[in-house]
Amino acid sequence: MTGHVVTRFAPSPTGYLHIGGGRTALFNWLFARGRGGKFLLRIEDTDRERSTPEATAAILRGLEWLGLDWDGDVISQFERRDRHAEVAHAMLARGTAYKCFSTREEIEAFRAEAEAKGSYAVFQSPWRDADPATYPDRPFAIRMKAPREGETVIDDQVQGRVVIKNETLDDMIVLRSDGTPTYMLAVVVDDHDMGVTHVIRGDDHLVNAARQQMIYDAMDWSVPVWAHIPLIHGPDGKKLSKRHGALGVEEYQVMGYPAAGMRNYLTRLGWAHGDAEFFTSEQAMEWFDLKGIGRAPARLDFKKLENLCGQHIAASDDAALLHELEAYLAVANLPALSEHQRGLMLAGMSSLKERAKTFPELLEKARYILTTRPVARDEAAEKALDPVSRGILASLTPRLRNASWTKEDLEAILTGTAAEHGLGFGKLAAPLRAALAGRTVSPSVYDMMLVIGQDETIARLEDAAA
Ligand code: GLU
């Protein structure tokens, strides 16, 4: 199978990219990419009333943000409707489907009668074995001639062997009387034509797999490998809903999670490789397999998400991280960086990225770069600038004016000044942080002084001492 793997993600464009959909796409992407295979994208837009171009655009944006690139063009299911109809007619020709002239009223009457008798209301069309000579001159649907006895076995890579009794499935319609294909037919025809070898999707589609497998059999097509993955649950183990927090992939982008951390987290959500928690996408591609997918629904765990995101931020290349931060500023509707700020951010990035779990946290640490004089201070910073501290800052500025602005030189000046006043360095650091960042919690004073430079440092100290 290696070298000839084709997977696909097949969302219906009726809303944003749901976090569960994002994970399904990710699993398909990892599985294909790790095997030199192809990952295809098909938009299932046959439901014309519920499908919108805005939803398609949102899904593509979500995938792009997650870094899940697909091969070839985006395929529209709706545009393939003629091909779907062609296959329905091929099934007719093969005798695995038939023309059904039953009207809606007749079908409803059948169901009502079956229910009254207490039997299972699977519609059995009287046209299944009818002589074509008896066909009336009126519109017909094409129904699959489904096996009535025996069982259909789905050999699922996650769920195991799933057995469905054929008597519980009706002769489903594959082509409606208005000539439009049904969803069930469209999925099979598309997956077949696209050469899909592995169908990895939510387990809400497991029942569909039995019906779809019948269509493969009816056309004598080879059935793909099935892998139906359990849905994602909230932290409380209940079905995921809005009250658990963000559901849309793009919402996570706006909250400032880095894409690499999000990928890592979603990969671990329902899949495991030993006890590996933090890993790169390259490692995930190498390791990802269907065996590692759990059978129980995975639970969202925001602490873990943040923890992984922090590790990915710290491990990022500085320039790449700045680039991603700028994309975050744009989607979060925050002011873009000026050229000057970009330069300072890059200079300070190696310390900024330590212990920031999200972009908002990184921006909070970068406040000393992004702020302008006079630096706004919070309450703790105001407190740190008591009269004694202001005096010390005032005595510090002439020395800083003569400094060579290396870390060693600054260290000598600051520890020397602290010692002269009989203070530990920490006591001096608080007013310095307050003066430079307007906060008492900030990156190290040396990092800040080196990044913003001599003139700006002295100006801020003078502001604070005044
Ligand atoms: N369009 C379906 C959905 O959005 C997915 C169908 C499939 O993966 O086979 O749930």
Automatic annotation (TrEMBL):
Keywords: Aminoacyl-tRNA synthetase, ATP-binding, Cytoplasm, Ligase, Nucleotide-binding, Protein biosynthesis. It comes from the Bacteria. Residues 340-464 form the Aminoacyl-tRNA synthetase class I anticodon-binding domain. InterPro entries: aa-tRNA-synth_I_cd-bd, aa-tRNA-synth_I_codon-bd_sub2, aa-tRNA-synth_I_CS, aa_tRNA-synth_I_cd-bd_sf, Glu-tRNA-ligase_bac/mito, Glu/Gln-tRNA-synth, Glu/Gln-tRNA-synth_Ib_cat-dom, GluQ/Sye. GO terms for biological process: glutamyl-tRNA aminoacylation. GO terms for cellular component: cytosol. GO terms for molecular function: ATP binding; glutamate-tRNA ligase activity; tRNA binding; zinc ion binding. ATP binds at K242. It is found in: Cytoplasm. Coiled coil: none annotated. Residues 5-306 form the Glutamyl/glutaminyl-tRNA synthetase class Ib catalytic domain. Its main location: cytoplasm. Its EC number is 6.1.1.17. Catalyzes the attachment of glutamate to tRNA(Glu) in a two-step reaction: glutamate is first activated by ATP to form Glu-AMP and then transferred to the acceptor end of tRNA(Glu). Monomer. PANTHER family: GLUTAMATE--TRNA LIGASE, GLUTAMATE--TRNA LIGASE, MITOCHONDRIAL-RELATED. This is Glutamate--tRNA ligase.
